[in-house]
Every structure is written in C-alpha cells, then in structure tokens.
Known about the structure:
Number of strands: 8
Structural class: alpha+beta
Radius of gyration: 14 Å
Helix content: 10-25%
Shape: globular
Number of helices: 2
Amino acid sequence: MTVSVEGPGVTVTLSDLDRSEGDLVVFSVRAEGAGLTASARVETLHGDDFGLFVTGLERDFRGWPGERVWISFRGDLELRAAHTGGVVELAWTLRGPESVADRARDWECVARTFLTPGEELRRFSADVTEFLAT
C-alpha cells in the first residue's frame, strides 16, 4: 500500500512499510516534482506515534493554534502541520542518511502539501492509519 499527498508541483508518497525488524518499523518517503526527486528511508520505533499525530490532526479539523510537529526517532522525516483556517499545510522535511563520523546530513528537502479540513484530512488520516497497519 502507498499513501500519496499532492501539493503545488509536488507529490509526497509513503510506501514500502517493513515490520520485519522487530521494534523497528521502516518505510520510504518520496517527494517528486518538477526537477526534484528526493527519497528517504524512515526508521521508527513502533511507528513513533506517527498514526496518533495524523489522527490528532483529523480530530482537531476545526483548527489548532501554532504548528504541530512529528519527527521520526532518527530524524529522517519531520512533518509540520499548520491550520490556517481553510487549509491544513503539511511541511514534509526529508533528510539524507546520517554520517557515522559526525552525525551530519548530506542533504535536506522540504516539500509542502495542503489538505482541506474535513474530508481530505479525514481521508489522509484513514490512509495513513491503514498504511501503518499493513
């Protein structure tokens, strides 16, 4: 199963969920657009409550103050969500692998997607929940 979210000129896709490593839940995230392709291997411990983060956005579809942030335990993926009234902005930060020597990252890519509160946000939440359950 895959989950795709489209934004202006970019699509972010979650895929390749792997639970074969015990507590470690791994999946791929890919951002594609005009002249851009970035992908990261996201490692989480039991999902790092990613599903709870997304269902919390759906639960509060009427809005919330400020920004909400989810970060995978290794920092491979960061998702920031802001509710601006008529739209929920998702800022997806994908990061390249950490250097063993100095823990630096070779690259970072930020892709922005937008969902309308209500049905689009509900569908996204349901899709992520189903994706994480596979």
